[in-house]
C-alpha cells in the first residue's frame, strides 16, 4: 500500500522535470537576449528591456499562467496545460535571468571589449567569443538559485490540471485522507531535486572557474 502510494507520486517527477527543462532554457534564451540588449543595445533599447524586467518580476507566475492559458490559449493559440504552464514560467524566469546575466556581463568589464576590438574583432565577435563565455562563468552561482526557483515553481502547473508531483500528491491526499503523508512525500521529492540541482551546478561552477595566480 505504502509503496504504491509513493510510486504514484514518483510518477510525477518526469513531468516536473519536463516543465523545468522547458521553462529554464527558454527563460535563459530570452534573458540572455534581453541582457545583451540592455548592455549593448543603446539607451532606448535598455529602457525597454528594463521595463520588461520590471513588469515580469512584478507579476506572480500563477497570474501569467492563467492569462496565457485561459485568455490567450482560448482565443488566439491552442496550448495544452503543460505548454501554457511551462512557457509562462519561462517568461517570468526570463526577467530574473536577464538581471543575473546583465550583472555578469557588466562584471566582465569594458576592458575586455576594448582589447578584443584592438586585435581586430568586430563588436559581435567580441561579445560572442570574449564577453559571453566569461559572463557565463560568473553567472552560474546566482543562476543556480534561479534554477531552484523554477524547479519549485513548476508545481504551479498543478492549477491547470497537469499531473506533476504536487497534483498527484493532492489527488492522493483527497483519496486516502492522509494529507501529511502525501504532501510530506512531495516535499521530500522537491528537496532532493533542488539539492541535486544545486550540487550539480556548484560542481559545474567549480570546474569552469578560472584559476587565480597566487600572490
Describe the structure.
The chain is mainly α. 83% of the residues lie in helices and 0% in strands. It contains 9 helices and no strands. The longest helix is centred in the middle third of the chain and has 31 residues, at 123-153.
How would you describe this structure in keywords?
215 residues, mainly alpha, 9 helices
Look at the structure and give the mean pLDDT: 87
Largest sheet: none
Helix count? 9
| Total DSSP E strands | 0
Strand content: under 5%
Q: How are the SSEs placed, and which strands pair?
A:
Layout (H helix, E strand, L loop, with lengths): L1 H9 L2 H28 L2 H16 L2 H15 L5 H28 L1 H9 L4 H31 L11 H12 L2 H30 L7
Helix pairs in contact: 1-8, 1-9, 2-3, 2-5, 3-5, 4-5, 5-7, 6-7, 7-9, 8-9
Q: In a few lines, what is going on in this structure?
A:
With 215 residues, the chain is mostly helical.
Amino acid at each position: 500500500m505504502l509503496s504504491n502510494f509513493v510510486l504514484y507520486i514518483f510518477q510525477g517527477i518526469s513531468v516536473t522535470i519536463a516543465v523545468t527543462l522547458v521553462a529554464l532554457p527558454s527563460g535563459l534564451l530570452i534573458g540572455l537576449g534581453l541582457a545583451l540588449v540592455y548592455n549593448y543595445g543603446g539607451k532606448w533599447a535598455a529602457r525597454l528591456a528594463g521595463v520588461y524586467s520590471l513588469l515580469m518580476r512584478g507579476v506572480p507566475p500563477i497570474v501569467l499562467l492563467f492569462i496565457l492559458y485561459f485568455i490567450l490559449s482560448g482565443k488566439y493559440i491552442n496550448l495544452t496545460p503543460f505548454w501554457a504552464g511551462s512557457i509562462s514560467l519561462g517568461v517570468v524566469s526570463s526577467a530574473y535571468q536577464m538581471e543575473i546575466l546583465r550583472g555578469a556581463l557588466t562584471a566582465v568589464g569594458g576592458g575586455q571589449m576594448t582589447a578584443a576590438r584592438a586585435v581586430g574583432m568586430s563588436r559581435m565577435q567580441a561579445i560572442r567569443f570574449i564577453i559571453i563565455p566569461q559572463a557565463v562563468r560568473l553567472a552560474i552561482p546566482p543562476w543556480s538559485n534561479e534554477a531552484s526557483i523554477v524547479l519549485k515553481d513548476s508545481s504551479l502547473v498543478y492549477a491547470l490540471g497537469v499531473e506533476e508531483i504536487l497534483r498527484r500528491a493532492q489527488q492522493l491526499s483527497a483519496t486516502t485522507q492522509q494529507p501529511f503523508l502525501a504532501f510530506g512525500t512531495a516535499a521530500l521529492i522537491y528537496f532532493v531535486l533542488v539539492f541535486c540541482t544545486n550540487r550539480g551546478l556548484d560542481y559545474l561552477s567549480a570546474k569552469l572557474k578560472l584559476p587565480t595566480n597566487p600572490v
